[in-house]
Amino acid sequence: MAVIETDVLIIGAGPAGLMAANVMQKRGVDYVCLEKKPGRSVLSKALGIQARSLELFEFLGVNKPFLKRGYPGPGAKLHLAGKHPSYVEMYHIKSRYPYLLIIPQHEIEEILENHLNDRGGEISREHEVLDIVQKKEGVYVTAAHHGKTKTYLAKYLLACDGAHSKVRKELDVPFEGEDEGITFFTGDVEVPEMKEIHINLHLNDRGAAAFFPYKDGTYRVVGFDRTRQGGPRKREMKLQELQDTLDTILDKSYKVENPKWLAYFGTAHRQVPNYRVGNVFFVGDAAHVNNPLGGQGMNIGLEDVGNLCWKIDTVLKGYAGNPFLDTYHEERAPVAREVIRNTTMELKLIDMKGLLGKARNWSGKAVLTQGWVQSRFANELSHVHSDYDKTPINQSFKDQSLSRKAIQAGERVPDQILFNEGTTDERLYPLIQRIGYVCLIYIDCYEQDLIDYAYEFAEKANQAFPDMLKVYLVARGGTVLTGRDELPIIYDVHRDLDKNLGMQKGSTLFIRPDGHVGFHDGSADVRKVMAKLKRYFI
């Protein structure tokens, strides 16, 4: 039997698998994506895209269809105590996307698959994985398709096959954690009396219920009813059961109609010990699960993809060694660990009742009146502060000579306005989207020593890593003519790179394809900066 060879084999075509296929297609990596189901599910577990995921979609070039079809939720209205609700506003998020984009999962998958198909990619559906074996030459996968058996050999395998991952089971990888013992209800319904632009959360001793507005005027409803806990858990929920539950929980109930789907579900928090096992990488729910509070589970999976796929491409192109891929676990596992810790704590708080519940409600109401609390809460939910600066390798690249405001290795680079080539404004993120690795060298103004440094670094970097990165000169203003093949020039007329990123004369800022800092060096020393560049790729 012929073996089908590929560079990357993706198992699963949910949001994470579809995004991985899109990234591989964009970067020209040979891949195969296998999915057991014949088509996309009409059910929609996830429903919200956080700001950081939208930024990653922008790097992929697929953000606009999401913005067109999603509902930009401005925040949440929390009914905790007293007659008046508390608000958490999302405009505090330091991103071009200061909201939770509310869109059902089946539409997320549809947009990603259409984008993939439009660019010549495809998903191989109705392929059930039977067996996985790792050998020296790669990962062998046997799959069944319409009664026939196929064998694949991949250099790398991405397990994007969900919480019940077949890949994880075949490789006997533990999924450490526990079930949380609470039965939630969820569904998409019409609520004719509700005319809300905010997410509405009701929390009391009887349970919790949250309403998420969709763009078409319908709502996702999710929560738990204390009177329906314990006993055997049903999967299907009837409309009358939902109505009875809402009548129980809410002080003023709303009539719900015309459900698209309704269900019960349980929650758990679990995580694999290592996201990498040989040349197999666990992504999204195959690597970690948490309860739905804050709408973070799917987003962490999308961000996993945003961290891993360009690294695999970098290794396949020969720019980095195989150990470079260990940084995927080092950077991403702490993010999920923190989300699991936070959502588990939040669920325990929500589950409080009696005097403890009343104390929670009143104290929560008081705290949420503070603007700094709202800002921190919104930014944490959005994942724009999910930096990697605490990992050992990124700590080793920290430059103590830079100013305190200077952005450092592993931190996310906020989008900035650039006056490119002295002709037009352009943002930094579209530059990263087109180019990938971007290197900015701050020469301040016409200074021959710094210009010579920039050209020498660009030449040596291109020799060591041909066609990998693009070097830009950054000047405050004026005309910079160097009398040679010009490096492109960005004029920092808005002072954004100075004020927001801490760049100064002699700064070299190396930015990764995911918009995080590779390193920021203030020495303007070619030998030192080239040594960092080579060490970065291990």
UniProtKB/TrEMBL annotation:
Matching InterPro entries: FAD-bd (IPR002938), FAD/NAD-bd_sf (IPR036188), RIFMO-like (IPR050641)
Domain of life from the UniProt record: Bacteria
The keyword Cell inner membrane belongs to this UniProt entry's keyword annotation: no
GO molecular function terms listed in the Swiss-Prot or TrEMBL record: FAD binding; oxidoreductase activity, acting on paired donors, with incorporation or reduction of molecular oxygen, NAD(P)H as one donor, and incorporation of one atom of oxygen
UniProt keyword terms in alphabetical order: FAD, Flavoprotein
Pfam families, per database record: FAD_binding_3
Domain (FAD-binding): residue spans on this chain: 5-343
Name by which UniProt lists this protein: FAD-binding protein
Organism: Jeotgalibacillus salarius
